[in-house]
Amino acid sequence: MDTKVLKVSDEGNFTAKEKKYLEEAAEILKNGGLVAFPTETVYGLGANALDEKAARKIYEAKGRPSDNPLIAHVADFEGLRPLVSRIPENGIKLAKAFWPGPMTLIFPKSDLVPLGTTGGLDTVAVRMPSDPVARELIRLAGVPVAAPSANTSGRPSPTRAEHVFQDMNGRIEMILDGGPVGIGVESTIVDVTEEIPVMLRPGAVTMEMLHEAVGEVRIDPAILGPVSPGLKPKAPGMKYRHYAPNADLTLVEGEEEKVVCEIKRLAAEKLKEGYKVGIICTDETRECYGGGLVRSIGERAKEETVAHNLYALLREFDDLGAQYIYSEGFPEDHLGQAIMNRLSKAAGYRIQKV
Ligand code: TXA
Ligand code: MG
């Protein structure tokens, strides 16, 4: 299969040519095919969420286990109603506060949504993205669009069309290239089927923001550390070793000076043994490091820059053939919770405190 890559500017004012591209993409979705498209979080791999056969193609293209459910993306509130059997009070509050935007809500599903989309669960994940390309594509398709991140299962999520191309060329009909995404980590997932909402995955809608909107919010243990064999995370996707670079990644946490010292020591050790070593630093500490492949992940003082660059940097280290990577850690409040969740998982929870 030839994968078409079409550029569509992400500003929202589409030219006649871009409109034609979007219509072509929507047509593919309507006919049961796959289209990758930008969202404000990461690139998604879209299919008609109501078409079980189309959903199956997503699992095949990604090499994803089929018990891992998909998020249905909608363009507006009218799109939500038919997918759910009930909209709990907290769901309304959160949707009003954060949609369109980087938040996914888990609802009890309606009969319309096939089990092939929800991995056999009787709940459905729904998100209303804010990205203009995503919204227009969903609107033109006229159906909810099931879309996991558009990476091969186990690889870092794609934040640029080129990343999607690396993983999906020849496996899907089309990639809409809207340039680099804004946020860079996947949406916050909140289960609102229970009395007290439960955060299943941290993202750019932070715990602090959720608290402000609905008060008490619990946190699924799968977010906090490795999932023990007996424990079943509520978001099935959280049990897989996700976001993994090819290299062995270790996080070093603690006081800045000590962290820099320890990373330099660890890197020097592996360099001496002849390995290719990557170092993930920040703009603030860039000058402290010498040997190895030293890359800044962003400005420590602006955590949104860190989230933005995270996955692209992990992919860059793969391309460079890094065998060991040492990364500075980050505070776990606000967006830092999402950053540390993704980095810890990429590190297989190898975290060194100094
Ligand atoms: O930002 C995002 O959410 C991106 C963009 C494309 O929208 N999508 C994304 O999808 O990250 P994916 O498939 O990579 O991650 C979806 C996560 C998985 O961990 C999955 O297990 C969980 O959502 N999930 C989906 N449906 C669920 C359900 N009914 N109950 C619990 N967890 C669910
Ligand atoms: Mg994913």
From TrEMBL:
A GO biological process of this protein is: regulation of translational fidelity
Which InterPro entries does the protein's record reference? Answer: DHBP_synth_RibB-like_a/b_dom, Sua5-like_dom, Sua5/YwlC_C, Sua5_C, T(6)A37_SUA5, TC-AMP_synthase_SUA5
Which transformation does this protein catalyse, written as a reaction?
A: L-threonine + hydrogencarbonate + ATP = L-threonylcarbamoyladenylate + diphosphate + H2O
Where is it found, in Gene Ontology cellular component terms?
Answer: cytoplasm
Q: List the keywords (alphabetical).
A: ATP-binding, Cytoplasm, Nucleotide-binding, Nucleotidyltransferase, Transferase, tRNA processing
Give the highest taxon in the source lineage: Bacteria
Designated name of the protein: Threonylcarbamoyl-AMP synthase
